[in-house]
Amino acid sequence: MPRILRVDVGNLVYHVINRANGRIQIFHKDKDYLLFESVLAEAKELNGMRILAYCIMPNHWHLVLHPRKETGSGAIFRDSPPVPTSCYPRATDTKYHEK
Fold first, then answer.
1. For residue 97, how far is the Cα from the chain centroid?
2. Rounded to two decimals, what is the model's pTM?
3. In angstroms, rounded to a whole number, what is the distance separating the alpha carbons of residues 41 and 7?
C-alpha cells in the first residue's frame, strides 16, 4: 500500500529518518559513509536545502532539514545521485518484501 502524500511547508524545520528494512546494516565501510556525505552535499547544492544536522549510523540515518521553499524535505534527494540506502539491495543482492 502506498504511503500517504505528506505536505511539506517551506521555511520550517523537519526531522527526516531513513531506516533499512529489517534493520539490516547499510553502511559497512568508511567509504560508504563518505559516499553518503558526498551525495548529501550534492543534493544540498542542487536543491538549496539547508542541512542543520545529520547523523549516519550503520543501519539508518537522520537529517534535520530547513527547506527554503514549498518543495519540502522530500526534494533533497530528488535530483541527486542515488542514496547509498537505495543502492544497497543491488550491490548485495538483498531482496525486500518477499512474500
1. 20
2. 0.68
3. 24
